[in-house]
């Protein structure tokens, strides 16, 4: 479907109706607001803390995946959503921060000894925490002033860390569950596909002048 | 040996199979219409009471709603809500439990006889899941030792192996393209563990027959072990001389041992077992509580493990 649309839109790219970026944030925060409300209203099932913690983490991963999907969508299907990438990336960071806060405060009750033991001893927590740490510089530099100060190339280089973060998030999800249930495998496959695309792209595509100029 | 229905029940008094299943369908529909959200699909609860037991804890019971809606039963999916939503398709009648292996009197018990014949007790037990949450559950059942005595195990029998029903048509999780475990689910106990008076075959919950998502029609409850030892919907019990394979141990031997005793001092490799969250206690802001050695049943069971290194034999 998207492919067909891209044929129509050729050169200029498929023209999507432009929505203000603030709308992305507003829609993006709906799950968080709903989850907190439902949690306080005791509507998250028998283990509300765990539900909230997992749901927030899942949304962080979803937004991370959304930011990674922007480039392939543009290059393969001529769908240009570049102007929303920063919002999606920041939403991923905000959800990761909420997920971490839930773990630290509601799950572990700020029991520092237990938290440190978790980080040191348990690979999935170590990976989760490292993933969050990686997201911090990306979030901090997600503004025009930072791009200007750093210079475009250095900024782009730094933001390639998002690939590492995506791998970390997918691994964190795979390692936290017992056995191999489908959901984390599906997310890991999506992340692998989006990152694999970036590996394969330079090998299969002749560099096109138009794209280079862009 | 087939343990038969009592002779005083005439064949004409037994509800024909078609009528029985039609009634189940009708009830499932009626339950939906009546918007009894707490009544899971397909559940046909019948009152089932048991005598009070001195083994019962007086801790606050987890609500029936939570006990029957938050379950691990991977035959019906890996989500906690899956069993309550999907286990209605499991046909728990007719049901027999085959007891074989190294016993003097192998038998096939009809579930009706198991529910009726021994004196049922209500046992309010703590239940600790390996995932770090816990509940307090009022089971109705009878000691496994009662059944063991009936079949007269041979001296060579050292362990008991359990097996769950394998019914892909009725258990959607078995058809998953990502098999989470090797089916059918199997579990095992050492014979002395099985004979411990705490070890229960549960046929009821909260004064009613067991809901499907909790392991109807009959399941094992070993309160000092992690919940996964409590195999659900048992179809076969075999007496053997070697330690039998167990499902989670086969899946990840470094994470789930054969013994699986609740032990706050031995972490699961991926999470601490020192504390637990009691379901239904404080909602979103529930505090963790310390996990007790042998889940608080050390007095009754610690002697089973004297001389064993529980760090190695976890």
Automatic annotation (TrEMBL), chain A:
- The reply on keyword Heme is yes
- Principal localisation: membrane
Which cofactors go with this protein? FMN; heme b
What terms describe the molecular function in GO for this protein? electron transfer activity; FMN binding; heme binding; metal ion binding; oxidoreductase activity, acting on diphenols and related substances as donors
Keywords (A to Z) from UniProt: Cell membrane, Electron transport, Flavoprotein, FMN, Heme, Iron, Membrane, Metal-binding, Transmembrane, Transmembrane helix, Transport
| All residue ranges annotated as the Ferric oxidoreductase domain in the record | 56-169
TM regions (residue ranges) = 22-40, 56-76, 88-106, 122-140, 161-180, 186-204
The record describes how the cofactor is bound as: Binds 1 FMN per subunit.
Q: What does the UniProt entry say about where the protein is found?
A: Cell membrane; Membrane
The annotated topology with respect to the bilayer is: Multi-pass membrane protein
Q: Which domain of life is it from?
A: Bacteria
Family affiliation: Belongs to the MsrQ family.
Q: What does this protein do?
A: Part of the MsrPQ system that repairs oxidized periplasmic proteins containing methionine sulfoxide residues (Met-O), using respiratory chain electrons. Thus protects these proteins from oxidative-stress damage caused by reactive species of oxygen and chlorine generated by the host defense mechanisms. MsrPQ is essential for the maintenance of envelope integrity under bleach stress, rescuing a wide series of structurally unrelated periplasmic proteins from methionine oxidation.
Name the record gives this protein: Protein-methionine-sulfoxide reductase heme-binding subunit MsrQ
Question: Lineage in the entry?
Answer: Bacteria, Pseudomonadati, Pseudomonadota, Alphaproteobacteria, Hyphomicrobiales
From TrEMBL, chain B:
Q: What is its EC number?
A: 1.8.5.-
Record-linked InterPro entries = MsrP, OxRdtase_Mopterin-bd_dom, OxRdtase_Mopterin-bd_sf, TAT_signal
**What reaction does this catalyse?**
L-methionyl-[protein] + a quinone + H2O = L-methionyl-(R)-S-oxide-[protein] + a quinol; L-methionyl-[protein] + a quinone + H2O = L-methionyl-(S)-S-oxide-[protein] + a quinol
Which cofactors are named for this entry?
A: Mo-molybdopterin
Ranges annotated as spanning the membrane: none
Q: Please share the entry's free-text remark on the cofactor.
A: Binds 1 Mo-molybdopterin (Mo-MPT) cofactor per subunit.
- Indicate which residues the UniProt annotation says bind Mo-molybdopterin: 71, 74-75, 129, 164, 214, 219, 230-232
Q: Residue ranges of the Oxidoreductase molybdopterin-binding domain? A: 91-248
Show the GO MF annotations: metal ion binding; molybdopterin cofactor binding; oxidoreductase activity, acting on a sulfur group of donors, quinone or similar compound as acceptor
Give a short account of its post-translational modification. Answer: Predicted to be exported by the Tat system. The position of the signal peptide cleavage has not been experimentally proven.
Q: What is a biological process (GO) this protein takes part in?
A: protein repair
Ordered alphabetically, the record's keywords are: Metal-binding, Molybdenum, Oxidoreductase, Signal
Q: Which PROSITE patterns does this entry report, sorted A to Z? A: TAT (PS51318)
Its EC top class is oxidoreductase
Q: Sum up the protein's function in the record's words.
A: Part of the MsrPQ system that repairs oxidized periplasmic proteins containing methionine sulfoxide residues (Met-O), using respiratory chain electrons. Thus protects these proteins from oxidative-stress damage caused by reactive species of oxygen and chlorine generated by the host defense mechanisms. MsrPQ is essential for the maintenance of envelope integrity under bleach stress, rescuing a wide series of structurally unrelated periplasmic proteins from methionine oxidation.
Which family, according to UniProt? Belongs to the MsrP family.
- Subunit-level organization: Heterodimer of a catalytic subunit (MsrP) and a heme-binding subunit (MsrQ).
What is the name listed in the Swiss-Prot or TrEMBL entry for this protein? Protein-methionine-sulfoxide reductase catalytic subunit MsrP
Organism of derivation: Microvirga lotononidis
Tell me the gene name.
Answer: msrP
